[in-house]
Amino acid sequence: PEEKAAVLARGGRVLRGRVGATLGFTRGLGDRDMAKFLSQEPDVFELRVDELDALVMACDGVFDTLEDEQVVTVARSTRNPHKASVRVRDAAIAAKSPDNVSVMIVQFSCD
Questions:
Q1: pTM exceeding 0.85
Q2: Tens digits of per-residue pLDDT, 62-88?
Q3: What is the rounded CA–CA span in Å between residue 96 and residue 73?
Q4: CA atoms of 90 and 88, how far apart (whole Å)
Q5: Candidate from 9-13, 24-28, 78-82, 87-91 with smallest mean pLDDT
């Protein structure tokens, strides 16, 4: 609701839950066509690395198709970050993601 209001206040349109009917709500980093309607401010926060197994960075083609818990389960199925990324990608494709699917997983070792 907050981001939708901001898009509308900047003169953008929201159709079918997407900015200009094409872009899911996100930050406008790198999207020149939609940048004037979206925030250019990234969300920045800190986490203690020793609290995490891995960091999953993936696009909406993954997170609009799979629940967070599904992504975690698949990502934790191997300690190899490349294999984990491929498995998450394949799970999103198998779940019929209608969007592009990009995944990067960074494994942390705090031993």
A1: no
A2: 999 999 999 999 999 998 999 999 999
A3: 18
A4: 5
A5: 24-28
